[in-house]
């Protein structure tokens, strides 16, 4: 386990994990949480094949502007909740190589990433159980493609796009509202402030 091993080191600015063997690590829970001054982290040799828990891994890393996790293996992942939440200076996130057959917890992943301009979502379909606060307050984001998400198991969407004041285009063409979802679902998703462009076959 690496859970919380570096967490709360408020003055930490750089971490080099290039010689660390993480091949058997199961949990990366809150690994860097609240490392407010962390600007760079070398995870080029990170092996996440065994990892299932990535909850709040980079949560509240307020000085982090970029991160490369394209080599991460998420095949055993079951939880990514709040993984990047509160990374207020992060400008882009690329998880396009992510593949998993598990139903994963995905709520709050990008919430409060105020400077986020680009999100590259997985090319393969991912099944999620919860989408609460997924993009809350991503006020710089103008468009997002969520067509990779299979929401057939998700019953909660609270504040999914709340505070996304510049979001003008959303692709949720794969979304199907479950019959047992709560009646005010759509209002929860957009907090009564729907974007200008949503594919006609969405929802």
Give structural attributes.
1 helix; about 200 residues; about 10% strand; three-stranded parallel sheet; mainly beta
How would you concisely characterize the structure shown here?
This protein has 203 residues and is mostly beta strands. The chain has one helix spanning 185-190; strands at 14-16, 40-42, 92-94, 103-104, 118-120, 126-128, 143-145, 149-150, 169-171. The protein has 1 helix and 9 strands.
Describe this structure in words.
The protein has one helix at 185-190; strands at 14-16, 40-42, 92-94, 103-104, 118-120, 126-128, 143-145, 149-150, 169-171. It is globular, with a radius of gyration of 17 Å. It is built from one helix and nine strands. A three-stranded parallel beta sheet has the order 4-6-8, with no helix packed on it. A two-stranded parallel sheet has the order 1-2. The chain has a two-stranded parallel ribbon with strand order 3-5.
Q: Helix and strand succession?
A: EEEEEEEEEH
Helix content: under 10%
Mean pLDDT level: 85
Distance between the termini: 40 Å
Structural class: mainly beta
Strand content: 5-15%
Count helical runs. Answer: 1
| Strands ordered across the widest β-sheet | 4-6-8
Number of strands: 9
Estimated radius of gyration:
17 Å
**Uncertain runs:** 196-203
Largest sheet: 3 strands, parallel
Task: State the shape.
Answer: globular
């Amino acid at each position: 386990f690496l859970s919380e091993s570096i967490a709360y080191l408020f003055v930490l600015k750089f971490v080099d994990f290039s010689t660390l063997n993480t091949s058997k690590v199961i949990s990366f829970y809150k690994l860097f949480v609240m490392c407010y001054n962390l600007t760079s982290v070398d995870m080029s040799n990170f092996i996440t094949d065994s990892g299932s828990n990535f909850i709040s891994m980079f949560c509240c890393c307020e000085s982090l502007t970029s991160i490369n996790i394209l080599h991460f293996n998420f095949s055993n992942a079951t939880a990514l909740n709040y993984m990047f939440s509160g990374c207020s200076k992060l400008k882009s996130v690329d998880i396009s190589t992510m593949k998993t057959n598990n139903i994963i917890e995905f709520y709050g992943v990008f919430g409060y990433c105020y400077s986020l301009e680009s999100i590259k979502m997985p090319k393969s379909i991912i099944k999620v159980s919860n989408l609460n606060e997924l993009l809350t307050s991503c006020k710089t984001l103008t468009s997002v493609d969520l067509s990779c998400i299979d929401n057939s198991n998700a019953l909660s969407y609270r504040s999914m796009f709340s505070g996304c004041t510049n979001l003008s285009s959303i692709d949720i063409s794969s979304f199907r509202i479950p019959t047992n979802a709560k009646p005010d679902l759509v209002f929860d998703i957009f907090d009564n402030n729907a974007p200008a462009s949503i594919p006609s076959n969405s929802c």
